[in-house]
Amino acid sequence: MMRTSLAFTLFALLLLAGAIVHLGTGARVIAPQTVVQALIHFDPRNFDHTVIIRLRLLRLEAALVTGAALGVAGALLQSVIRNPLGEPHILGLNAGAALAVVLTSALGLSLPFGRPLIAASGAAALFLLVLLFSSAGRSGLTPMKVTLCGVALSSFASSITAAVLILDEQTLLAMRTWLAGDLAGLSGETIRAAAWIAGIGFALALWLSPSLNMLALGDRMAQGLGVSLLRTRLFALLAIALLCGAAVSIAGPIGFIGLVVPQLIRRLVSVDLRVMVPLCALCGALLLLLADIAARTLFMPYELATGVMTALVGAPVFILMASRFFK
User: Do 310 and 96 touch, CB atoms closer than 8 A?
Assistant: First the structure.
């Protein structure tokens, strides 16, 4: 309990400090005290205050929602398939979400709440295909088969996405930066719609946490304790799809946050999902903030896409984990 309380306090303070640094970072560097003043007592006549509230605050909100959603989605995914390498980007959810958004954009289709629900539908559809293919054969569903099928179907979906973009130059121009995983140039409407969808996914994750804890004991034990395996897994898949859809609709297919964050919380704090879910939200938001700060400052005055930074760190971590897990 002491470790959990300390972890919540520490991550909350680090997230607050990271948010202040993030708001002060950019082409025009703004001092932390000015950032705090703008948040507490906004003065529209002050140019720095206007930059923070009217421009940079949206990017901060996008990073917080995206990072938190990916962190929680990774924790749920690893728990449901019992695979420490489970991650939305690796197992095809992000690629499915991106493909759905690109296809509907190219066809001129739309839904209520727009991108988040479209992306969630694509993520769920492709992950169901991953589970279907990896369940085939005598050995059934194994961690290695899930990972390999996820990587293969993710590449397949990315190829279709690339083909659509090549054939539709207008969609390519509109989504080129978004597909690299970036937080720039977002509208408040997009972020608010995604936040609602992510909030529903987060609520589902908290509700499912006790059942998923029992699921970790094995299917027979969980059934003996009164857990409905089918209902728990279906609702978990819905929560994962909503969280991934919200994240991809904002920032595109950003990878590896969902891989690193749950592993970090599991090793340092607790394996109890009732604790992991909120902590993964805090840690995921913090990691994406740090990645976005690095993307904006390492090569100033030029900016990298945020997804490039997460891939540079996450890919070596995945290789290290895979080498240990499959040896």
Answer: no
Helix (H) or strand (E) holding 88: none
1: three-class secondary structure by DSSP: coil
Q: Which helix (H) or strand (E) holds 21?
A: helix 2-24
In this prediction the pTM is 0.91
Give the burial string for 241-269 (b: 16+ CB within 10 Å, else e).
bbbbbbbbbbbbbbbbbbbbbbbbbbeeb
- Give me Rg for the CA atoms of the chain: 20
Contacts (Cβ under 8 Å, ≥6 apart) of 323: none
Burial 163-175 (b: 16+ CB within 10 A, else e): ebbeebeebbeeb
d(CA 246, CA 195): 7
Which DSSP string do the residues of 251-314 spell out, in sequence order?
H-S--SHHHHHHHHHHHHT-S-HHHHHHHHHHHHHHHHHHHHHHHHHTTTTS---HHHHHHHHH
Arithmetic mean of pLDDT over the chain: 87
CB of 84 closer than 8 Å to CB of 61: no
Amino acid (one-letter) located at 213: N
58, 107, 176 from 171: Cα distances, Å: 24, 10, 8
Condensed to tens digits (0 to 9), the pLDDT of residues 142-165 reads 777 888 888 899 999 999 998 988
Task: Give the span between the Cα atoms of 254 and 292, in whole angstroms.
Answer: 11
Q: What angle do CA 93, 99, 101 make, to 5 degrees?
A: 105
Sign of CA dihedral 29, 32, 33, 39: positive
17, 19, 23, 24: CA torsion to nearest 10? 20
Alpha carbons 309 and 225: distance in angstroms, whole number:
43
- Cα separations in angstroms, 181 against 15, 81, 178, 209, 227: 21, 26, 5, 29, 38
CA distance readout (Å), 172 to 56, 119, 159, 280, 291: 26, 17, 14, 33, 25
Give the separation between CA 2 and CA 122, rounded to whole angstroms.
41
Task: Read off the pLDDT band of 28 (50, 70, 90).
Answer: confident
Give residue 129's Cα distance to chain centre.
20
